[in-house]
Amino acid sequence: MIACQTELECLYCGRPTVHTVFYASLYIKRIVCHRCAHVVEKPAAVLLRQYCRDLPWRATALARRLKHEAQADPLLFVSSLPRRVVNKPIELSRELAEVCL
Asked: Within 10 Å of residue 19's Cβ, how many Cβ atoms?
């Protein structure tokens, strides 16, 4: 999970203050106000729906990227393929765990 700090107007105390924004994969999961500690959190079901809705687009983008890489440098592409085949499912399972937990 990635955390970033930014200044936002708090929904609870109504003042501009520093907030920490937590991301699960590409999606905002939680925002915490540093002044009043108010937490705004997306339900896991909403995050999972967003994640699943984006998967087909990500798969087609990956296929396009792989095609261009294979055309640009076939030897490098072939040599990197075994590592990618192993790492991609691991990466997707980590993302899914971040989204669901």
From this structure: 21
Decide: pTM greater than 0.85: no
Return the DSSP state at 25. T
- Rounded Cα gap, residues 74 and 30, in angstroms: 42
Residues 25 and 11 in one domain: yes
Count CB atoms within 10 A of the CB of residue 29.
21
3-state secondary structure of 88: helix
To 5 degrees, how large is the angle CA 48–CA 6–CA 35? 100
Higher-pLDDT residue of 25 and 22 is: 22
Asked if residue 47 and residue 95 are part of one domain, the reply reads yes
CA distance 6 to 34: 10
* CB of 35 closer than 8 Å to CB of 17: yes
**With contact defined as beta carbons under 8 Å apart, do 28 and 2 qualify?**
no
Domain housing 15? 1-42
Torsion 85-90-96-98 (CA) sign? negative
